[in-house]
């Protein structure tokens, strides 16, 4: 488990947050920028002043991206496994000949 690390101040949707993390500060800043962009996109598509609602919409959009990426990775892994099995069968045939 990462140590408590240092505090990295970040701005998300006009609010400043002190993030304590053992991660690289530049990486934490990139994460915060990404979340800020998602919050701003949610604000553009849903004009409301409710920060909690915008945060939930941004979180849902980020979760959707994550799930799509996982599905894509699983599909690609399945294709690679099928190709590896086919290569193994071909090698077995060649070696037994």
Descriptive overview:
Helix 1 crosses helix 2 (51-96). It is built from two helices and two strands; from the N terminus they run ββαα. It starts with 5 loop residues before the first strand and ends with a helix. It has one domain. The longest helix has 46 residues, at 51-96. Helix content is 69%, strand content 14%. The protein has helices spanning 25-45, 51-96; strands at 6-12, 15-21. It is an alpha+beta fold. It is elongated and about 70 Å long. Strands 1-2 form a two-stranded antiparallel sheet.
The gist of it:
The protein has 97 residues and is an alpha+beta fold.
What are the key terms here?
2 helices, 97 residues, alpha+beta, elongated
Class inferred from helices and paired strands:
alpha+beta
Number of beta-strand segments = 2
Total domain count: 1
> Mean pLDDT score, rounded?
90
Give the C-alpha Rg. Answer: 22 Å
| Distance between the first and last residues' Cα | 52 Å
Largest sheet: 2 strands, antiparallel
Unreliable sequence segments: none
Beta content: 5-15%
Strand order of the largest sheet: 1-2
């Amino acid at each position: 488990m990462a140590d408590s690390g240092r505090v990295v101040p970040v701005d998300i949707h006009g609010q400043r947050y002190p993030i304590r993390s053992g991660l690289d500060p530049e990486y934490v800043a990139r994460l915060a920028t990404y979340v800020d962009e998602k919050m701003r996109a949610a604000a553009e598509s849903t004009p409301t002043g409710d920060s909690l609602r915008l945060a939930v919409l941004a979180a849902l959009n980020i979760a959707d991206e994550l799930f799509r990426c996982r599905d894509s990775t699983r599909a690609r892994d399945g294709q690679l496994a099928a190709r590896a099995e086919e290569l193994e069968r071909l090698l077995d045939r060649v070696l037994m000949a």
